[in-house]
Amino acid sequence: MAPQPPPSTLFQASGLGWPRPAIGRWPPDRQIALATLLALPVWLALGLLLGPHLRAPLGWLAWASLVLVQPLLEEVVFRGLLQGQALVWLQRGGRPWRLGPITLANALVTLAFVALHLRAQPLAWALAVAAPSLVFGHLRERFDSVWPAVGLHAFYNAGFGITAWLVSH
Q1: Which partner from 30, 51, 99, 149 sits 20 to 30 angstroms from 105, CA to CA?
Q2: Do 162 and 96 meet the contact criterion of CB atoms below 8 Å apart?
Q3: pTM above 0.90, yes or no
Q4: What is the pLDDT of residue 20?
Q5: What's the CA gap between 34 and 13, in Å, rounded?
Q6: Distance separating alpha carbons of residues 144 and 19, to the nearest angstrom
Q7: DSSP state of 121
Q8: What is 69-80 written as a DSSP string?
Q9: What integer pLDDT is reported at residue 28 of this predicted model?
Q10: Which segments of the chain are extended strands (E)?
């Protein structure tokens, strides 16, 4: 991918614009499709291995928080503001610094995302958000927008909530 000029505004740097390239085309983007499909075996494994320990949201406010509010706020703050600024600051030769296939910005924001989850979850659960966080960060960079990450995060949270609800009923 050719180096991109630095975004000229905080809005642009935060990835709040429409995704480029557009994600609504057919066939769907392979990476989004893969990230979506890989969630299914994860939910199945969670249900089978940890079923009694999973807690389903109780009530529509809890569901709205899990599926709408949390993905939107977390992605705008972490992948938008933090990763957007890190991508601007952590460049070498006009390109983001990379740790193999992952940008340093994505890795650092993922560490912060895991740390946030440590406040409310045990260590193993908090560490489990690292892989999805790297996926969300990758999509944010791939599409130069937080919106694909918001959508996938909402989908992951919905699937997790549904899995927890199914194993408890």
Answers
A1: 30
A2: no
A3: no
A4: 79
A5: 26
A6: 6
A7: S
A8: IHHHHHIIIIII
A9: 74
A10: 91-92, 95-96, 98-99, 102-103
